[in-house]
Amino acid sequence: MIKILMLILLCFVGYSMLQGMINPKPKKEKRGWMSRRQPRSSEGEQMVEDPQCGTFIPLGDAVSANIKGKQHYFCSKKCLKEYKKNHK
Ligand SMILES: [Zn+2]
């Protein structure tokens, strides 16, 4: 009886060890993919400098304007107006 119990225990230990060796890898990859993907969306955004006040704004939030054939990005419409005033 004890021999059978030992065998079952050994099988269980061996099985859980095997599972532990096989399973964590895909889990880690999934987590790594998730954690790698999240910063990418926030850090991956291009930052542009407001030539009027010098602040850096994410391209998606910037006010873009074409002045004298050049694309400029501003933190606000106020800065865009000021810049246009100064570069006439
Ligand atoms: Zn500005």
Automatic annotation (TrEMBL):
- Residue ranges of every copy of the TRASH domain listed in the record: 50-87
Q: Where is the composition biased (Basic residues)?
A: 25-39
**The protein's name:** YHS domain-containing protein
**Top-rank lineage group of the source organism:** Bacteria
Disordered as annotated region, ranges: 24-48
